[in-house]
Amino acid sequence: MRQVTTAAPTWLPADLTSPLDDKLGIEIVDWDPDRVVARMPVEGNTQPFGLLHGGATCALVESVGSHAAALAAGPGGTVVGIELNASYLRGTRSGVVTAVCTPVRRGRTLATFLVDVHDDHGHAAATARLTCMIRRAR
Prior knowledge:
Layout: H1 19-24, E1 27-32, E2 35-41, H2 54-73, E3 78-88, E4 96-106, E5 110-118, E6 124-135
Antiparallel strand pairs: 1-2, 2-4, 3-6, 4-5, 5-6
């Protein structure tokens, strides 16, 4: 995969990657709080007709958005997704998809993000909105 552009903050736990992220091959490649970016291979994440599975796409969106919310929660904070809305725009059969997550609003207890997913050719594959509940450390 690609080299990380903006490194993860040192306060984030080293084991932040989930087992599902590992299974799907999801990797965060930019930790900029205003533009968290993740990548995922299409191979191994397809439905029976050879297209990128919608569930894998949603997992990618949840992962990148949850990482963005964790940055907003700060050291010791926790986050949980509470709403996901996704629209699939174009089928993807090969290569890698990239998810770019940008904040719409980062409040004290809720954060909402827009996530655009595109293929290796820059074609929009999906777009989503994720809202996470934030619990800051006390």
